[in-house]
Amino acid sequence: MKTEAWILAAATLSAVLGTLAGGGCAGTTNRPADSFFATKVKPTLEYYCLECHNSKSASKFNQFNLETGKLAMTTGLHKPVIRPGKPDESLFFTVLRLGHAEALAMPPAPDKVSEEQLADIRRWIHSGAAWPEGPEGHLKMPH
């Protein structure tokens, strides 16, 4: 527990310092946050979200594209879909938490994002939603 709290505090401090230095949230080159994104967030987004929320299909799914951080932060009918630092105000996080009985639940079916994955996404958004640029930040369809 103490380790998780320390990691969250360090990620939050890094996001704040990156923002103060002019780095912003999406596209920062903050290594601990980049690692968390790459190992915890990116695989979840690729598996559960990218099939519909990509450049070819986004027009059918509320114009929301998750291929890159810039697109994730600027697309969608109800922008911003991801609100860095505010997971509970982020439509993205809200729809992931909904049960299948809800029409807006994502992913629609049959799989749901696990509680652990939801916690990782919440932590990521809470700490500033850092999303690296370049190949490491570009989502790819799972094979």
Structural write-up:
There is one protein chain. This protein is mainly α and 143 residues long. The protein has one domain. Helix content is 43%, strand content 0%. The protein contains 5 helices and no strands. The N terminus is likely disordered.
Features:
about 140 residues, globular, mainly alpha
Question: Considering DSSP H and I runs of 4 or more, what fraction of the residues is helical?
Answer: 40-55%
User: Taking Cα atoms only, what radius of gyration do you get, to the nearest Å?
Assistant: 14 Å
State the end-to-end distance: 35 Å
Q: Tell me the quaternary state.
A: single chain
How would a crystallographer describe the biggest sheet?
A: none
Q: How much strand content do the residues show?
A: under 5%
Catalogue the unreliable spans. 1-29
Class per helix and strand makeup: mainly alpha
The number of helices is 5
The SSE order reads: HHHHH
Strand elements, count: 0
Cα shape: globular
Brief rundown of the structure:
This protein has 143 residues and is an all-alpha fold. Helices cover 43% and strands 0% of the residues.
SSE topology sketch:
Layout: H1 2-20, H2 31-48, H3 69-74, H4 91-97, H5 115-126
